[in-house]
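Retro notes (design track)

What went well: tokenization of the new backbones is finally stable.
What didn't: we kept losing track of which sequence belonged to which structure.
Fix going forward: every design gets posted as structure first, then sequence, in one message. First example under the new rule, 543 residues:
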């Protein structure tokens, strides 16, 4: 039978996902019984056998804070200003912002903050605090993420969490009402490809809220026999009895080319967030920039816009040196579809440009952005020049580049802040441009370290918590956090609007997407997901 997973205190990631008890299994049967799970033999290739991975079952009342938060977080106290900000209503936020920005329409801003999104209901934005030559300080959006991390990094309000953690709050506000409205038949699941700590937390919190068992399936993009598949528009996961269990709703944290595994249309399984959010800009920087541009044109009359570095889209590899030169020799080149800091190239020297040009790249199109550095070596293009305000100087007088991650969710009562954290670069900003291959050490803030295909580590030494020790180093005030929140909601709404255009009529508009994002390599990966689902369905019928 299935095994129920409980999360003991301070258990390791691997042990958390394997500990089980059969007594809880009987008590945690789903309230929405699935159609009969089918046991399907899997043909093993000749030679070395393929190890079949199975979904783990997570029971209610198994959420343990020690298993789903960093140790540093458990010993930290949330900063009073951060707690005050997270407790503000959207009405107060709109009033305060418009008091400082009188050209912004308060009614339009409040409507923006209170309107539920159609597809993109859980998101994270990475923002820089910047200033310009006139000394105007503001927050700008660097990237919007449709499967953001962050809950494990938010200091708690108390030592005891009783179904009111930030994991629970996110699911209650944005996910669970959607599941109830969707209906359907089958069990509940969390599918993911990295970040065991948070995804096991989501599974445990979902089991608490639903009062039924939840399947936790790790679905990597290179797994020859994954524990999840789509058949006939429905997700199935393989349990430890080798049975395929139908899923009515799934919380998705699949980050690496999700469109190559998950179809855009899944009529029998509610997917949160649907893959169209990734394609519309949540994991597609090319499409995101177009979404921001469309949204800015519609909302400039309300005094609202998404602020970003200057961005040049659809750049072929041979054009990159030309654009870098036009930006003064400093620029950022990005693979539009990567994440976790991968595929981002900060270029401040001929050596860094040559290294980029010599590398083989997965995709044929790139985006080139103006580089946000120190005052003397930031890109200057179209009359727009941003440079980092950075952290407060340390005892050596050093200032570090830092970003702010803001995670939000959208429900029937509007948007809410779910979690926050910050990250700093490894080396301090220098007054002159970095030489050789050293710019990433000064500008790269992402904590993820790629050890190999689907193998990751995290450099938590550069993590800056929203606690009394770290937050003060960021030099941010309440109005900066409000600005970051509004920029995040604006970016999320722009991408959701793009997703609505792509999903008009309930089906994905491939022709429109091909026009908006004409990258043959990406389109081939998307065809792989649709074709793969069709192949699985044909095998299912034959059996």
């Amino acid at each position: 039978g299935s095994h129920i997973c409980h999360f003991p205190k301070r258990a390791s990631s691997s042990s958390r996902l394997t500990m089980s008890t059969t007594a809880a299994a009987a008590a945690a049967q789903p309230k929405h019984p699935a159609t009969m799970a089918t046991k399907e033999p899997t043909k093993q290739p000749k030679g070395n056998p393929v190890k079949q991975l199975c979904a783990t079952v997570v029971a209610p009342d198994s959420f343990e804070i020690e298993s789903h938060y960093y140790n540093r977080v458990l010993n930290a106290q949330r900063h009073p200003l951060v707690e005050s900000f997270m407790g503000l209503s959207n009405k107060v936020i709109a009033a305060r912002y418009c008091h400082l920005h009188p050209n912004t329409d308060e009614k339009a801003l409040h409507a923006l903050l209170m309107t539920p999104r159609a597809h993109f209901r859980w998101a994270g934005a990475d923002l820089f605090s910047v200033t310009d030559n006139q000394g105007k300080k503001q927050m700008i959006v660097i990237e919007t993420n449709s499967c953001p991390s962050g809950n494990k990094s938010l200091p708690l309000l108390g030592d005891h969490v009783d179904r009111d953690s930030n994991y629970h709050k996110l699911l209650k506000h944005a996910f669970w009402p959607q599941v109830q409205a969707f209906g359907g038949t089958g069990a509940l699941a969390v599918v993911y490809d990295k970040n065991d700590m948070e995804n096991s937390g989501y599974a445990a919190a979902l089991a608490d809220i639903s009062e039924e068992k939840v399947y936790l399936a790790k679905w990597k993009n290179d797994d020859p026999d994954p524990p999840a598949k789509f058949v006939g528009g429905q997700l199935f996961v393989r349990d430890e009895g080798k049975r395929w269990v139908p899923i009515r709703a799934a919380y998705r944290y699949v980050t690496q080319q999700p469109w190559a595994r998950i179809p855009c249309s899944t009529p029998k399984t509610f997917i949160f967030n649907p893959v169209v959010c990734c394609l519309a800009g949540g994991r597609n920087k090319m499409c995101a920039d177009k979404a921001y541009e469309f949204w800015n044109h519609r909302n400039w009359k309300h005094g609202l816009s998404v602020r970003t570095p200057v961005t040049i889209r659809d750049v072929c590899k041979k054009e990159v040196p030309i654009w870098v030169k036009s930006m003064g020799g400093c620029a950022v080149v990005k693979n539009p579809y990567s994440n976790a800091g991968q595929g981002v190239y900060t270029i401040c020297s001929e050596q860094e440009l040559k290294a980029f040009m010599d590398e083989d790249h997965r995709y044929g199109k790139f985006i080139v952005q103006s580089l946000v550095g120190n005052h003397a070596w930031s890109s200057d293009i179209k009359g727009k020049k941003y440079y980092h305000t950075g952290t407060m100087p340390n005892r050596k007088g050093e200032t570090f580049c830092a970003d702010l991650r803001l995670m939000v969710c959208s429900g029937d009562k509007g948007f809410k802040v779910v979690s926050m954290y910050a990250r700093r670069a490894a080396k301090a900003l220098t007054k002159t441009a970095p030489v050789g291959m050293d710019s990433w050490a000064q500008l790269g803030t992402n904590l993820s370290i790629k050890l190999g295909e689907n193998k990751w580590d995290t450099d938590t030494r550069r993590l800056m918590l929203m606690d009394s020790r770290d937050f003060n180093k960021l030099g941010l005030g309440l109005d900066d956090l409000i600005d970051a929140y509004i920029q995040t909601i604006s970016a999320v709404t722009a991408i959701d609007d793009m997703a609505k255009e792509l999903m008009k009529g309930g089906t994905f508009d491939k022709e429109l997407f091909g026009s908006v994002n004409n990258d043959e390599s990406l389109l081939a990966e998307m065809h792989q997901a649709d074709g793969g689902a069709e192949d699985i369905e044909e095998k299912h019928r034959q059996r």
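Added context from the reviewer: The chain has 17 helices and 21 strands.
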